Amino acid sequence: MSADQPPEAAQPPPTRRLRHLFDGDETNVYNSEFCNLCAGTPGPDLLRRCVDIFEEATAHRMAHERKDAFLFQYGATDGPWDFREELSRFLSKRYDDQVNEDDLVLTCGASHGLQLILNSFIEPDGVIFVEEVTYMIAIAVFREFSGMKIVSVPFSDTGVVASELERLAREEKAKRGDRSTGKPFWAVFYSIPVYHNPTGVCTSQEVGAEVVRVAQSLGFLVACDDVYNLLHYGAGAAPRRLHSLERSLAPPAGAAGPRRRHVVSNGSFSKILAPGVRVGWLEAPADLVQQLRTSGILRSGGGVNSYTAGVICSALQLGLLDKHLDHLVATFRGRMRALCDALEAALPAGCSLHPARPAGGYFVWLRLPPGLDAEAVQRHARDTRRVSAFPGALFSPASASSAHGPAAGSSHLRLAIAFHDEQRLAAAARDLCSAIAELIQQRGDVLV
Q1: 121-171: pLDDT as tens digits
Q2: Where are the beta strands (DSSP E) in 169-304?
Q3: CB 242 within 8 A of CB 265
Q4: Does position 392 have pLDDT exceeding 90, yes or no?
Q5: Angle between helices 81-95 and 306-317 (to 10 degrees)
Q6: Are strands 412-416 and 363-367 parallel, antiparallel or unpaired?
Q7: Burial, 94: exposed, middle or buried (Cβ in 10 Å; 0-12, 13-18, 19+)?
């Protein structure tokens, strides 16, 4: 070996050339020899449709830009006005409820929206209340805000247990006293009220109204992760979002002057178009929108992702997104039905879809018999049937057993319906049920 050649141990690592988030792992959702039911993302058959959508929308937008090319300039901090106008029309139609363009702020998706909420509106030593099972990567985001305290709140088949949210919020507020750095809120309740991840639960109107009342009474923000609201597969109207519910409620008793609103809706095109576009929106009260318009981060960058927002604006104007969303809803309805039918036909005794078969969204929450650990089931299904699903403890802020007992969700699995076609979902469900039955038989003496 020549003197100027580094030793073997000092060689740089191989170039990391991953094609997408799920690349580089045996359980890659694109691996045809393994059925991964973990990933909450549209499949390739649905993403390929986006090629034609974006070709047509881009050509339309570029023809519009030939005069002044404003789309290539630094953008407005809250996003291009025509994008917000078209988005408000689209959402008003799809929600069957008025959405005002002045309440909308462009984001790079719901994850960026959540970061904006935490950075802009919540005290740096504030409190984040979360449902006892929730989107697991949101938990990782919260932990990166090291000055903030995460408090888990019990969850039920109708949403968060509002009485417990009130009790815990009163306790935390009493501990803080009056200290403040000038942020609008001392705490935030992060919730997924419509087609909850991972359970599929929709917060009832009664629980939602109580959550709003508690937030108004105790002065904290409610940040709704509203990325599944438009994926409604049942008959009748889709569940109402909390942002709309708050507007309709009477002011708290004894309230004087204009009522402050406490709910922000955090939306995204990731689930209704394509995750790679990295475009979303916040629907927020006027005072919070104004704060974002003057944000140093957004002003310095000229807003975010203005170019892609402009192309999506054209897709909205041309009706392309309406057609695509209709197709997604029909496709996901069939996939949800195929997975749930196969599970209900083959699940061993003691297992169930919990709390019920979802009427929308991406996920099925599968309850296992008492005493059967979901992580053991996940490993057994992976190793013997080449099927994978997320064990429920991943969705708990505790994420592990403790002196208080097992982590929430430890006897559940989360299954995703969006990526695979109906036939593959049904086959994977049958394989998973076989693996569960086999493990129950092997461990029958420890199940109680």
Answers
A1: 999 999 999 999 999 999 999 999 999 999 999 999 999 999 999 999 999
A2: 185-191, 221-225, 263-268, 280-283
A3: yes
A4: yes
A5: 50
A6: antiparallel
A7: middle
